[in-house]
Structures are given as C-alpha cells and as structure tokens.
Amino acid sequence: MSTTDTSLKTTVGSLSLNNPFLLASGPPTASGIQIRHAFRLGWAGAVTKTIVPDTLEIEDVSPRFAAWKGQDAGLLGFENIELLSKRNLSYWTGEIAAMKKEYPDRVLIASIMASPDPAEWQDLAGTVQDAGADAIELNVSCPHGMPEQGVGAAIGQHASLVRELTHAVRGVVRIPLIVKLTPNVTDIVPVALAAVEAGADILTAINTVQCLMGVDLDTLEPLPSVAGCSTYGGYSGPAVKPIGLRVISQIARELPVPLMGIGGISRWQDAAEYIAVGASAVQVCTAVMWNGAGIIREMTRGLSGYLAEKHLPDPGALRCRALPRIASHASLSRDTAHCACAEFPDRCTSCGRCVIACRDGGYHAISLTDRHVAIDKGRCDGCGLCSFVCPEGVIVMQPRTQMTGR
Ligand SMILES: Cc1cc2nc3c(=O)[nH]c(=O)nc-3n(C[C@H](O)[C@H](O)[C@H](O)COP(=O)(O)O)c2cc1C
Fold it and tell me: Model confidence at 190, in pLDDT bands (50, 70, 90)?
C-alpha cells in the first residue's frame, strides 16, 4: 500500500479543475440538462456543443453515425457527420449563466463557431463571455459540413487563417481563449504556433479525423447512408487515440502552451497516457455517448490509484513524464535486440497463428509440433509479430541477453 497523499486537482492554464476530466464538445454537452447530470456525477468541467449565431442555420441529417465494432460489440471506431448546436443563442446564454450559479466550482467552456467573417466570431465570443463562460474554445476543426461553408477545418488547416481568427477573438475577450485543432493537417506544429502567437492561452487536440467509414456491399451505399448517399465524416473513439497522442506530444515537444488532450479516451489509462505526453487535462466525447457519463467514477478512481502507486501527488506531476523518451528513429537503440520466446507453453492451443504469421509476414522462425512451439532463434529477427497474433499470450519478446534457452 502506498502512503502518497494524492489529489486529482489540477490546472490548465489559469483554469482550476477538481480533476483532469472534462466533457468534450458534442452530443453529451448538447443541453444544460446533460451537462448538469455530468457535473453531479463528478466531471470537473464541460465544453458546450459548439454554439453558433442564430443566423447560421444548422440542419442535421439522419442517420448521421456509423460504428466499427469488435467481436464483443465493443466500440473500436465511430464516425459522425453531425453538425453543431441546434439550440439558439439565448438558450445557451441562459443555461451558461444558470449552470455557473449552480456549479461555481466547475469549469464551463463555451465552444463557438460562426461564419468566415471574424466579426461574427467576436460578437459571439463577447456574448458567451458576458453570460459567464469560464473560457471560450474556438472550433476551427470540425471536418464535415462546416468546411463547405468556409469554417471548421477549412480554417484549422491553414496557419494563417488560425492566426487571423485567434487574433480577432483575442482582441475582444478577457477570459482564457482556447483553440481546438484538427489532426487533418500534415504538420500540426505551425498551426499550433500560429494560435499561440495570436494569443491562444490553451490548445485542445484533437477534433475528429476525416474518414469514410465503409460501403454497404449489398446496396453499394457509402456509410452512414443518408437516402443512398454519404459524405466524409469525423472519426473518433478508441481507434483515434494513437493519433491524438501523437498530436499532443508533437505540440508539447515544441511549445510551452497548456494542452487539453482528446481522442479515444474511454479509460483512466488513456487519460494518464495523454497527461504523460503533455496534456494538463483531457476531454471525452465518444466514450460518454457509448457508455454514459457515469464512466467518470472509474476514471477518477483508477487515475487516483495509479498516481498513488507511482508516488505522484497530482496529475501535474505525471505531465510530460514520457515526453523525453519520444526520440528520432535514428537515435533508438540498436544494442538491445529481442527474440521471441514461448514463455507460457501450457497455454498453447496449437491454433498455428504464430506459425502462419511468421511464415507469411515474418522470418520463417516458428514451427509447431504437438502443441510445442519451437522458435528458431537464429532466424528470429525480433520483430514481435508472433507475440501480437497469439491469442493466448504464449509468446513474449525478451532481450536476447536475458534469454534462458527456451
Ligand atoms: C457525434 C459527435 C459530435 C461532435 N460535435 C462536436 C462539436 O459540436 N464541436 C466540437 O468541437 N467537437 C465535436 N465533436 C468532436 C469531439 O469533441 C472530439 O474532439 C472527438 O470526437 C474526439 O474525441 P472522442 O474520441 O473522445 O470522441 C463531436 C464528436 C462526435 C462523435
């Protein structure tokens, strides 16, 4: 048992949080009722579904989701072609003011988007600020629908447009200004730098990854099919976590700006990984849609236990701890070659997947006779493929120097 006294309290920029978990902008923050429910369950903050001026008409299609599920029906990846908030501005100003009265210790961030005219963003920013929002998040990253109107990712994919818009809004708001970035760019760093130089206090990443979920092979309709046709959508959920981690770490390595990580977070471990590569806090959308806002209990319990076990007093002490270990490929060690070992031979069911994988995708180093996996160490190149395809965990990779002759 650890004696470390841990607290989940943390800060992101000048915002103080009871724990590092916020609801991301999306269906779980589409109404005040949902945000209040999440606050009661323990979420430290929420980013509203993106609020737009009343002049911008939002008309959603139906259906607007598609899912890639694992064999146990668990979610692997999720696509949406949903647009922004359909509630009017006076609904949001009333709810922001009311929620801040009811939950003064929670952080309420207003996500906003307007027409390509920066003056409209300035007006909207001023309105949500006056309503009492703790911070403003500029959605310059939605990859579907809005780019056709010159906003969303159509702005976020160009450093010059991000700079111009951020500068314009910065000029009229005194509360923290957050810019939510799109991963759909070749290099995130110039875009992040433009936002920071133009006055962003915090960056959020990632919004969804542009995708096409699939094609119904009976009808040849792309998915999700809206009366027979579809469009490119936004990918989220567990499948995008590696992209989010890459983006957050790339920004953290280059810029000393506070970061909020999003993308595929559904367990406390995912959040801990984001923090370890540079995030100060995290946001969650798809996992709440899929499993409910109650996942906060396990996320806070798990993260707390992990920090205590590691003798870390708070999430801030974990921040960036993995970052120095992200290096260039050329600098990675060539001195510690690994080799496959049949570490748990009793578990082998003779399925033969390791043999096939090593034969057709590897180095012809594995054979199987009568439930006995034999690894030819001379042929094994240490790639690790067999350890991943084995469904029973029979094979593990070991440094060649530690091998015991199995
Ligand atoms: C159905 C749906 C609607 C979304 N709507 C918004 C939105 O209105 N504004 C926004 O900034 N992000 C929106 N997002 C993006 C999420 O906030 C988040 O950046 C993304 O889904 C990745 O996180 P996740 O894997 O936890 O969902 C939406 C995501 C989904 C799945």
Answer: very high
From 21, 23, 25, the mutation candidate for ligand 1 (largest count of ligand atoms within 8 A of CB) is 25
Q: By the 8 A CB rule, do 210 and 79 touch?
A: no
* Residue 5 reports pLDDT greater than 80: no
Which residues have any ligand 1 atom within 6 Å of their CB?
24-27, 49-50, 78, 80, 82, 84, 111, 139, 142, 180, 207-208, 236-237, 240, 262-265, 284-287
Would the pLDDT of 102 be above 80?
Answer: yes
Token pair, residue 55, equals 């002049």
The identity of residue 346, as a single letter, is D
pLDDT at site 343 = 94
Q: Which amino acid is at 13?
A: G
Cα–Cα–Cα angle for 30, 79, 278, nearest 5°?
75
CATH class for the region spanning 338-402: alpha beta
Ligand 1 atom closest to the Cα of residue 238 is 25
- What is the rounded average pLDDT of the residues 18-42? 98
Cβ atoms of 29 and 91 within 8 Å: the answer is no
Q: How many CB atoms lie within 10 A of CB 317?
A: 15
- Supply the residue whose CA is at minimum distance from atom 21 of ligand 1: 236
Q: Is there a catalytic annotation at residue 142?
A: yes
Residue identifier of the C-alpha nearest atom 2 of ligand 1 = 26
Mutating to test ligand 1, I would choose from 21, 84, 208 the residue with most ligand atoms within 8 A of its C-beta, which is 208
Class of domain 10-325: alpha beta
Name the residue ranges covered by the structural domains of the chain. 10-325, 338-402
The radius of gyration of the chain's CA atoms, rounded to the nearest angstrom, is 24
* Per-residue model confidence (pLDDT) at position 371: 80
Q: What is the pLDDT of residue 401?
A: 76
The contacts of residue 134 (CB under 8 Å, 6+ apart) are 15, 45, 100, 107, 108, 109, 175, 176
Whole-prediction pTM value? 0.96
The pLDDT, as a whole number, for residue 4 is 59
Asked whether residue 387 carries a pLDDT value surpassing 80, the answer given is yes
Q: Which atom from ligand 1 is nearest to the alpha carbon of 286?
A: 27
